[in-house]
Write a structure and sequence with these properties.
7-stranded mixed β-sheet, FAD/NAD-bd_sf, about 25% helix, single chain, 24 strands, about 550 residues, Cholesterol Oxidase, domain 2, alpha/beta, GMC_OxRdtase
Length: about 550
Amino acid sequence: MSKPHPQQDIFDYIIVGAGSAGCVLANRLTQDPDVNVLLLEAGGKDDYHWIHIPVGYLYCIGNPRTDWLYRTQSEAGLNGRSLAYPRGRVLGGSSSINGMIYMRGQREDYDGWAEATGDDGWRWDRVLPLFKRSEDHYLGGTDFHGSGGEWRVEKQRLSWRVLDTFIDAAGQVGIPKSEDFNRGDNFGVGYFEVNQRRGVRWSAAKGFLRPASQRPNLTIITGANVSKLLFEGKRCVGVAYRGAGADYQAHARAEVLLSAGAVSSPHLLEVSGIGSGALLQKFGIDVVADVPGVGENLQDHLQLRTVYKLRGVPTLNRSVHSLFGKLKIGLQYALTQRGPMSMAPSQLGAFARSRDDVARPNLEYHVQPLSLEKFGEPLHKFNAFTASVCNLRPTSRGSVHLVAPDMRDGPAIAPRYLSTNEDRQVAADSIRLTRRILGAPAFARYEPREYLPGPAYQTDEDLAHAAGDIGTTIFHPVGTCKMGRANDPMTVVDSELRVRGIEGLRVIDASVMPMITSGNTNSPTIMIAERASELIKASRKGRA
């Protein structure tokens, strides 16, 4: 798929980053044979076998072949802990290593974006057709789902009695069953739909980039580390990058499209001279545009991993601790592409309210028939399952900023989890709701016993502290190049994703979200790229 470094150095468009958004852009823009596109990806090809086997995320996250290996700074809200902060470093970006959950969020999320930007093009009713355009839903086309698109959506190929019990217990505390979380109101409980095809991961690289890679007007270069954006005055005219041991430059006739993600996009802007003037001058960087919002407004979903021991119901913990169990799991996947090796990291979801007076669901559960102390460690030897719960709309805001004037020095990532009283209250309330679900009659026969955080934590203060001990990222960083109105000094891009004060440069990825969506963020990022491709094409037509 990747091509040698090109002899030419001038293209119509240069896309920085072959993650979810970059793959969509490469596909859509090269549908016009008169448009010449260069796609630069710092990572490698997606030919590592564990990318494609769903359970392989365990071997991709924390692996320098596929992950940038970022870490957060020590977090006060997490009682001084620092977290691994996985981001995809491979064709497909994080869609090649993530949880594969297909989720759009809630209608109000997008209506809120429209209010924040003054652009009705971001409203739910306007973006729903964009979601449908990409989609290839296993049930075919309906009022809410698309058929024949590049983004495959299927049911999971598994079921677990403990997960079915969670559905029943959630119903007993007022959370109804849901067959579809993607109609604009995701209140309910049910199995997640996933980006898979017959039990194999379906990444943005497979869906969008592979078809486009056959077109002669697309050049894809892997192992291309972009070091700086290039400017003539206030116009971005290209990029400098390093690959195969040599330095290169590439120039764009029309635009440079920055799709490096919520961590790397603001980092590259700052290194290139776009950001807070005071911060850039501190590192000796010439200020091209003083845009203080760059790297601010970081939002992420913090999951609280509650674990319960159980009796009389199977979980994956027991299966993986016997040779026979492992052989059975491997053989099942080899023959049928079903079973535990086809599992997304979380199989069951629920959307609920932390309190009765909350207007719409503000919690998301990711439920798993397994448990472990922390990601990357072996499963517990005792029988247990995990009900992780996250605050969908945190009020805490963090940042991503450079620490040196060179892209090779990773940025400082400071999510500032649980830094507001509201977020600490929601954390306490969400643990209490989990206890109510596990205390429902449906679970009684399995004698659930709380292992994490443990029944000793009871007061709001105790539970907020416990949340700091068991909380971890669910890999949804957004917002660090937020879009908004011109009168908002912290806006980085306008509603058409053009960088403030600069011509020829857009940011197109999860960093432009003004507010995080109420659910998993990968498919909303693909939708953003779909809309961006429309805006770019319209702009090109206007210039013709």
